[in-house]
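agent> fetching stored inputs for the calcium ion docking request
agent> found them:
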Amino acid sequence: MKKIYLLLLVMCFTGVCGTANAAYHHMGEADSPKFQEAYPDLAGTKLDSCTLCHRGGSYVDSSNKTRTLGTCQWCHYSYGYDASGDIKETLNSYGNDYVNAGRSTGAFASIESKDSDGDTYTNKQEIAALAFPGDPDDNPGKIPAPRIVYSLDEIKNNLPLHKEFLLLNTNRSGDFYAEYEGVPLYDLLIDAGMDEASTTGIAAYSPDGFSYVYDLNPGGKSYYVKGTYPQASFYYDADADKANGGWCDYSAPSCKGRNQGDNITVDGGLKLILAYARDGAELEQGYLDAENKLNGEGTFRTVPPQLVPGPPDQLSTAANQNVIWPYDKDADHNAGFSERTVVAIRIEPLPEGTADFNWYEGGWGYVDDKKVIIYGNLKNGNISGTVKDALTQSPIEKATIAADKGGYSARTDAAGAFTIPGVVVGSYTLTVSASGYQTKTASVTVAQDETEIADFSLSAGGGTTCPVESVAGADKGLLALLRSYRDRVLAQSSLGKQYTALYYIHAAEMTRLAVFSENIRSKMAAALCAVAPSISSSLQGSGLSLNAAQRHKIMDCIQAVKKAASPRLKAAIAQFEKDLDDGTLATGINSTIK
Ligand SMILES: [Ca+2]
Ligand SMILES: [Ca+2]
Ligand SMILES: [Ca+2]
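agent> prediction call returned; pasting tokens
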């Protein structure tokens, strides 16, 4: 069975983006396959999501407040988990046009010349520019605010770790002590290129649209990003202990050994952090619960220490206030300013003429991918260039350009031109791929307020792009190793040859998807690096053996593939799984090494 996992790895290059929305690609969900059939080169892009055809909405709640909901939450609210509502209530103008045109694969083409959302751009123009044709606030004329996207791993691996034990004091939902781990928010924002001198404030957003605003510097009324907070002491009282029916949870392991009145010392001092772990465990991912409310606190949570340290006070709603720490409306209820499931951080002010981040479109996708976007007042420049055929010098349309970090990507227009505005200053590796051409990479350095020109000439390459190259193009040794396995092992059996062919049939789609999804790309790269030593020794005749960790990394990729593959690719994976199940693969791949 060992070689099966290598095939899984080969198949894992059929990588696609994680699904942004749980309902998308659900069993029986009939429209996304039609979209992918109509626009095969857009599978896995931002347009390949619920938000293409669906919208958010708002309602007035019981306390007379208007609540605005993103696409997912609005669908849950108006259509319902039980699908008892009217689905039409969730459609945007483009979704309506699609339904009226027959809700078929052909319906997409038949409404291309329309301007469904009335933003002056036709549906065709919008789709070509990866703008939503059903959202007038998103159109090809908008310049996105300067921005940078971080994954959880990037934050963990590249930025300072700060651990702090503190009280989160609430008004009425129960207090608790915990040790949070994360990056000091200030350090993160500096890394993201914040233009500190001109920054006027910082807001953290969760995907349900809730937000909190922080000051940059101490001295104002709000919790602040820069600097440390006053040292606190530990407040313990047996009556307050939740374990005894009180209102404060002392069960965290980090509470052990502490006594009432102890100073709480924190290395580096208490800071406002963007936390990703609590008492040693990754934060529970945020999700929409049965009441359609955000539950959980991860991937990221802002944790502000108390400005005025004090004890955990009784719930405001508790009948019995005759306790050691009764409810005090003036106490520092810092938990109320701790934003759970942060997906976006806006640094004020937004540069003039640039568009705000739209959490309707992006929020839950960031939760799924364990990412956060930081945008606004950042030191930035642009990347601009052309992609041409190396031989004929003719422009290549629909080539994809993606940076190795920061979440930047673009597609070329009919003139082979592309622009990525608002790229945070720094150095990047760009990967350019186009169907029928060899993938190419180049290094660029973006300077403040300047446009870095990146022109590419691509050579035609075997009629296909290479997903492995798009993931590990810089590692020539690894590429050679995999090609060697293909030629010396897979090519020795008819089934091996079949699977190699299958890989190339889907190569163009896989590459595009891998290029668009930094998350998947990094998963693929991790899997490749993990198994490389085993492939290497297997080629020396030792047989291929993979351990649990290697298999886990491979399965990670496969799971992502299964979630969001195009129908064509899905069928290939289904065949592969069947061959795996009934033993066809185990017996069909010749282990002879040439
Ligand atoms: Ca339009
Ligand atoms: Ca639009
Ligand atoms: Ca309290």
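agent> quick read of the result: The mean pLDDT is 86.
agent> awaiting further instructions
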